[in-house]
Amino acid sequence: MDGNISLQMKQVIIFTRRLIENRMKIRLKTPEETTEFINICSAYDSDINVLDGSIMLDAKSIVSMFGITNGKIVEVEMISNNKKEVERFVERIRKFEV
Predict the structure, then answer these.
(1) pLDDT tens readout for residues 55-76
(2) Angle between helical axes of 83-93 and 31-42 (0-180°, round to 10)
(3) Taking CA atoms, which of 1, 20, 21, 59 is between 20 and 30 Å from 12?
């Protein structure tokens, strides 16, 4: 059994090293910008989070995102193992970057 646990842990560590995490500071000033941001995020299968201090929100959640839309600077991250996907995402949200 111990051999299986260590093998599983090794697989998790290897998988984690392959993930690409990219963070960018953004500001969503209007409800329209928030809607556009949510639509962009929803087009991707990867996890996308918005970090507001120590609070982490799902960037695809309308309720979460409209709760922080007030021109506040937040960080957004996409977690993916696909470098091209991350690059496309960053390019699409660059208009919100601060």
Answers:
(1) 999 999 999 898 876 788 999 9
(2) 170
(3) 59
